[in-house]
């Protein structure tokens, strides 16, 4: 039996933070749940377009992103590609927020 793909199947947990670690202080979840908070998970949809910064001259990386379905955004000077592809290429540290 084949399970139909839903939005939940497209979500990927990128990072899980424990309360008190960097990135969790003064967050709304800490304020709302206090000591009952176990962790904070950042999830992304694999199909959501992410903006990736690739420096001038890094032609090989630009070619990789393009071959994975990425498009060049000339206005913002970034590559836009689905999150799943960006993660697969190991470029999550280059995502522009």
What does this molecule look like?
With 97 residues, this protein is of the alpha+beta class. The chain folds into 2 domains: 10-44, no CATH class; 46-97. It has 4 helices and 6 strands. It has helices at residues 7-10, 28-33, 59-67, 83-88, and strands at 11-17, 40-45, 49-52, 71-73, 78-82, 95-96. The strands form 2 sheets. The protein has a 4-stranded antiparallel β-sheet. The chain has a two-stranded antiparallel sheet with strand order 1-2. Strand 4 (71-73) and strand 5 form a beta hairpin. It is elongated and about 50 Å long. The protein starts with 6 loop residues before the first helix and ends with a strand. The mean pLDDT is 82.
Q: What is the compact description of this entry?
A:
The chain is of the alpha+beta class and 97 residues long. It has helices at residues 7-10, 28-33, 59-67, 83-88, and strands at 11-17, 40-45, 49-52, 71-73, 78-82, 95-96. It has a four-stranded antiparallel beta sheet with strand order 4-5-3-6. A two-stranded antiparallel ribbon has the order 1-2.
Please specify the SSE layout and strand pairing:
Layout lengths: L6 H4 E7 L10 H6 L6 E6 L3 E4 L6 H9 L3 E3 L4 E5 H6 L6 E2 L1
Antiparallel strand pairs: 1-2, 3-5, 3-6, 4-5
- Over the alpha carbons, how many angstroms does the gyration radius reach? 17 Å
Number of strands: 6
Low-confidence stretches: none
**What about the largest sheet?**
4 strands, antiparallel
């Amino acid at each position: 039996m084949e399970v139909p793909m839903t939005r939940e199947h497209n979500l990927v947990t990128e990072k899980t933070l424990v309360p008190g670690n960097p990135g969790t202080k003064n967050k709304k979840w800490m304020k709302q749940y206090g000591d009952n908070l176990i962790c904070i998970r950042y999830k992304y949809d694999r199909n959501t377009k992410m903006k990736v910064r690739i420096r001038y001259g890094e032609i090989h990386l630009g070619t990789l992103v393009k071959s994975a379905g990425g498009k060049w955004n000339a206005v913002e000077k970034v590559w836009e590609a689905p999150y799943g592809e960006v993660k697969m290429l190991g470029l999550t540290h280059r995502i522009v927020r």
